[in-house]
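2024-03-11 09:14:02 DEBUG pipeline.ingest accepted 1 chain
2024-03-11 09:14:02 DEBUG pipeline.ingest length=98
2024-03-11 09:14:03 DEBUG pipeline.predict start
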Amino acid sequence: MSTPFENTYDLSSEQLENLDLAEDMMIRNDLGAAERLLLKMLDEDEECIPVLSNLGHLYGRHLSEFETAVKYYNLVLELEPDNAWARDARRRYLRYIE
């Protein structure tokens, strides 16, 4: 499977397909299915930054579970301290819980 972007995290074809599927589910507002898929993916690779980021996005933007969103963004930042996107997203949700 060819990707239109650089596969920075060296994700497998299955991971890429599942991330696309989870994003489609979020767009269709099938949030429970997206959550189950992302959590299953996290069980298989607990340090997968794209999965952690998508979980942060799901919990923050779609479910308004800001503490959970911050938790996932914190995990991203533990693995990748220079991740500006995760830092900005975490800051956005921290203001709701502080």
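2024-03-11 09:14:41 DEBUG pipeline.report The chain has a mean pLDDT of 93.
2024-03-11 09:14:41 DEBUG pipeline.predict end
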